[in-house]
Amino acid sequence: MAVTLFGAGACAFDPQTDQSGAGGLAPVGAENATGASAPPAPDQGKTPVPATTKPRPPATTAPPRKPARPSSPKPPSGCPQGDRQRDVETYLARLGGFGAVTVDGRQSAADCAAIKRFQRRYDIRPAEGRAGPTTADVARRLASTDTDKCADGSGTTFCVDLTLQTVWAMRGGKVVMAPTVTRTGMSGFRTPTGTYKVNFRNTKEWSDPYEVWLPYWQRFIGGIGFHQTTTYLHNKSIGSHGCVNLLPSDARRMWALGKVGTRVHVIGRRPGT
To answer: What region holds the L,D-TPase catalytic domain (predicted)?
Structure first.
């Protein structure tokens, strides 16, 4: 039986609605007219005048068709090219692990496959392979994270870079969870920097002040802790009330790595806070 603790911090609840509509072609009714009309019979005693025919005009020859112009190469089907193509290719090549990319600013089947894998991994919607601003921003932050900035001890340390909005885990000087994305405290609720320890954990914690469930809750100071996000993580216009929001897979991974007493090291400052 899970223990419920009230009064924990929570990210801002921002439910989003997905509106959709459907339409179709209205049936077209065919308008049918029926009836008959017969020409009057020729007058009795008169010889009918045969109908005359006009000569057909001579057949004309159709003008020759112009040769089709060669079309410019198009991106692979289903893989639109975004305005940050080269940037995303550069960052993915630096990160590695998502497939081969060619840094040339042009979409290819291999580039699209790698970008889609990246988008699915970090829940960037829609995951259609388009290199847009959100994909470029997430890739830049991950590729720029310096894991050596986090001073870890002999055990596991959870590291948070507020400036880049990234999280990773260290153990014995080695990265045991690669940097991933987070969203921390918004303006007025800035996540505090410093070194702390996880002091309470619950797989499903209820936040009394904000009335929201916090899956995979790991508290490290006051009412602030790590937990699975309750909103779209890449909506940067909002933030938490100090907590470190995580994608579902990352929240589960950090839960498996952590325990009461796990060290937490928070550095930097979220832009705008």
So the answer is: 156-267
